[in-house]
Write a structure and sequence with these properties.
single chain, alpha+beta, Pdz3 Domain, 2 domains, six-stranded antiparallel beta barrel, six-stranded antiparallel β-barrel, 16% helix, protease
């Protein structure tokens, strides 16, 4: 056993060190109004970082591993998926190539981040793999990946690599756990931020309360924005939404899930009950204003 360990452990150590060394040029520290985080070069001139530790105002700067400081500006941010995009002078920057590979449960991963421009590395294990999920803020995450690793606040936004050195996502702090925002989510959200500067969200202009009906579930309209899409469609306070595009409503959450970026501007058939009588209306989904 001693001979086996003497062979395997140095090889594993060297392989991990090599993975980190290859990744370092793309890793940056992100400084924003007393807040510190990590990030990585996604495309020439574009940095992906974690949104939550990024200050709401003030100047932003980035520091590369060789000690170079550069000013940056926020190109867009999405609170729901914890992804922010920064623009900077792209001279001599080295983008990272993201991989759509989902790591295996129990596999080793390395988080490469930075503190004050100094690269850091943390070894962890993939502790949970799940399907697509929705964050508490309503963002769609393409896979549930949890990492058993130690992550300090300044390392949020660091790059997660698998044992083959492939970049599989970005590390962020969840509630009592470390989450990995997968590459597919990063490419999708950062792509929209690059083009539009924000992620559009559908807006109905109503406050809803789930209710149980004799034949299923419904969503009671508790309030109506007089200038919103629902008011324009004729929906009133007290109406109960029971159907959406000719399908039975399965709950308020399912209705909210239908209000993604691609829903804005689409026309939907809404089935409601008004004082017990069935009513059909057509509603054009609006765009939620930035807050």
């Amino acid at each position: 056993m001693a001979d086996l360990n003497a062979s395997i452990l140095p090889s594993l150590s060297s392989a991990l060190a090599d993975i980190v060394a290859r990744t370092k040029p793309a890793i940056v520290s992100v400084h924003s109004h007393r807040s510190r985080a990590s990030g990585f070069v996604w495309k020439p001139g574009l940095i992906v970082t974690a949104d939550e530790p990024l200050a709401e105002e003030g100047e932003v700067s980035i520091r590369f591993s060789e000690g170079t400081d550069r000013p940056a500006r926020i190109a867009g941010r999405d609170h729901t998926t914890d992804i922010a995009l920064l623009r900077f002078d792209a001279e001599n920057s080295v983008p990272i190539t993201l991989s759509s590979v989902i790591p295996d449960l129990g596999s080793l991963s390395v988080v490469v981040a930075a503190e004050q421009g100094v690269p850091t590395a943390a070894l962890g294990m993939v502790s949970l793999i799940g399907d697509r999920w929705r964050s508490i803020r309503g963002g769609e995450i393409d896979a549930r990946i949890e990492l058993d690793a130690r992550l300090r606040r300044r390392q949020e936004g660091g790059l997660v690599l698998n044992a083959a050195g492939e970049a599989v996502g970005m590390a962020v702090q969840g509630v009592r756990r470390i989450l990995v925002i997968p590459s597919a989510t990063i490419d999708r959200v950062a792509g929209r931020l690059e083009t539009h500067g924000r992620i559009a969200r559908g807006y109905l202009g109503v406050g809803l309360q789930p209710v149980e009906l004799e034949d299923g579930l419904g969503a009671m309209v508790m309030s109506v924005d007089r200038a919103g899409p629902s008011a324009a469609a004729g929906i009133r306070q007290g109406d109960i939404i029971v159907g959406w595009n000719n399908e039975k409503l399965s709950g308020v959450r399912s209705l909210m899930r239908a209000l993604g970026p691609d829903s804005v501007g689409s026309v939907v058939d809404v089935a409601i009950r008004r004082a017990g009588a069935p009513v059909q209306v057509k509603l054009t989904i609006g765009e939620r204003a930035e807050t």
